[in-house]
Amino acid sequence: MKRRPRLYFSFRSPYSWLAVYQLRQAVPDVFDRLDWYPYWDPDTRTSATLAERGAEFHYVQMSRAKHRYLLLDTKRLAEQMGLAMAWPIDVDSWWELPHLAWLWARRQGRAVQFYDALVTERWVRGADICTPEVIGRAALAAGLDAAGAQAAPNDEQIREEAAGCLVTAYEDDVFGIPYLRWGRHRFWGLDRVDHFLRAWQPAGVNHTGSATDPMAGVPAGASFDTDTAGGCG
């Protein structure tokens, strides 16, 4: 019997945000059906732990030209999906904070609520989710303790769990986000979400072009980043 599908996602990536939106449109309880692994640029402490475990971080930073394209592409795709989007400005961001805070929230049984609060802050309000202020605000919106979420990177157990997520990503050859793996099947990028759904075909998922189809509402011939498979690089 195959293992449950794994979804590698990132709060940094707009393609990850849009892919999760599509997955939830097709499978409303997708948070319960998939194994979720956060993926982010590790800080020096996490990088050292990865090295100790014989793992690396496969992701390569994108060029300025590619970043400019991503700005236009994701704005266009969000509009096609009927989503409001504000592009945040990231300057020397510490990505451990939101991703480890999400792992902490999952331990509190509020993974979905905190995920929603964070993507609202980042992609709807354009806020810097790598700051304690925004993390605290998102935690409160999710019904969580603000101080607990802000302190997640200081929790040794959370740090170990976080490193384990990136080690698993290394072992799964993850090089960009979003990335789905189910058995031998691997799917990278926003425009591979429907391919994943067709291969997986959980009960109740409709791929006939009805309202439950993840591509419903996206015009035929819509432009996608074929160079990056709709990934974040």
Q: What spatial order of strands do you see in the largest sheet?
A: 2-1-3-4
Q: Could you give the distance between the termini?
A: 32 Å
Number of helices: 10
String of helices and strands: EHHEHHHHHHHEEH
Mind summarizing the main beta sheet?
4 strands, mixed
Rg for CA atoms? 17 Å
Helix content: 40-55%
User: Mean pLDDT, as a whole number?
Assistant: 85
Number of strands: 4
| Shape field | globular
Strand proportion, as a percent range, falls in: 5-15%
Which regions have little confidence, pLDDT < 50, spanning 5+ residues?
Answer: 207-233
Helical/strand content category: alpha+beta
What's the multimeric state?
single chain
Describe the structure.
The structure is a single chain. With 233 residues, the protein is of the alpha+beta class. 46% of the residues lie in helices and 7% in strands. The chain has helices at 14-26, 30-33, 44-52, 64-80, 96-107, 111-124, 132-141, 146-150, 156-171, 193-200, and strands at residues 6-9, 35-38, 179-182, 185-188. Strands 2-1-3-4 form a 4-stranded mixed β-sheet, sandwiched between helices. Strand 3 and strand 4 (185-188) form a beta hairpin. Helix 5 crosses helix 9 (156-171) and helix 6 (111-124) crosses helix 7. The two termini are 32 Å apart.
Give a topology summary:
Blueprint: E1 6-9, H1 14-26, H2 30-33, E2 35-38, H3 44-52, H4 64-80, H5 96-107, H6 111-124, H7 132-141, H8 146-150, H9 156-171, E3 179-182, E4 185-188, H10 193-200
Parallel strand pairs: 1-2
Antiparallel strand pairs: 1-3, 3-4
